[in-house]
Amino acid sequence: xxxxxxxxxxxxxxxxxxxxxxxxxxxxxxxxxxxxxxxxxxxxxxxxxxxxxxxxxxxxxxxxxxxxxxxxxxxxxxxxxxxxxxxxxxxxxxxxxxxxxxxxxxxxxxx
Length: 111
Description:
The protein is 8% helix and 40% strand. It is mainly β.
């Protein structure tokens, strides 16, 4: 891989699946979060405007660093080059694999 890696991060957010590209990701000091920095958006070399990518650009406009809960992450890939980010709506029949929410450990019984 190149010395300047690019990561594709796919995660679930408010009934939608986001696919974004970033140059830096790592485990956050905040427990249960992944930090995503240096978001990468495709260059405007064509006249066709992708509404999904425009939505992402507007949503992440001015964001320096994003903290994504680990249980929302679907997949992280290191890729050769960035692609177009997209947002996909999750339909009722779609199955999204998610990490379960952490639950407190059960209390031992006094029996």
